[in-house]
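Recall that a protein's primary structure is simply its ordered list of amino acids. Everything else, from secondary elements to tertiary packing, is in principle encoded there. The following example makes that idea concrete.
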Amino acid sequence: MAEPIRVSIDGELMEPGEATISVLDDGLLRGDGAFEAIKLYGEHPFRLGEHLERLTTSAQAIHLSYEPEALWGEIHALLADTELPPESMIRVVITRGGRRIVIAEQLPEWPPAVAIALVRLTPSEILAGVKSISYAANMHATRIAAEQGAGEAVYVDRDEIVLEAPTSSVFWAGTDGVLRTPELETGILDSITRRVIVEDVAPEEGRYEASELRNASEAFLASTTREIQPISSIDGVELPEPEGGAHAIAAADALRIAVDLERSSASGL
């Protein structure tokens, strides 16, 4: 987690060192809750409505009740009352104990490109598509990748079908030059950044074997905080375009245009 700047708990604004929740909250004891991370461009939270809709979907999937209207107001109150640096984000968490947490954070620093390792994962169907705070497996996958000399993991299932990275979506172009990404039906998260790329760049979506990703001519990860991050190597083998290629550029352009259009609309220009 990046460095926190300001925190709101159930609408009460406070400094990070003052923020507490009960040690008996199952959000802490069992990782039982849901969350969203939203990047700020200037002071504008990109696709906030879509993020909060997905939060509601996650909450409903795990039978977790909360007050969406209160949370919406608390987010805007935090943003209005907090002086934020240029590279910032907000994290929204709802816990089984009934707490609504909004954290203003500095963005994590990502390298310009990343080496990945493919890690076997058997996804839980009961949590497919849910952005749960039970992230221990995700974080451990990244540690497994680090032990193999990589900066990030990409999951493959027991049938060697490519899924996603612990906190991002994966895209790649094969030797035929066609951009591909796993379909949502594989159980991956319906990423907001992935939506922008799918809508504007129109990659092929399907079920793809790990061998197809390993033979990519270029590949990249996409997420709220990474935006578009080229993949430099896979399982120790450098890609032909380790710093990204035409598809990564097109995806980055699509995201930038989507951000600019939303900010212009929000400002009334």
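The chain has seven helices and 14 strands. Residues 246-267 form the longest helix (22 residues).
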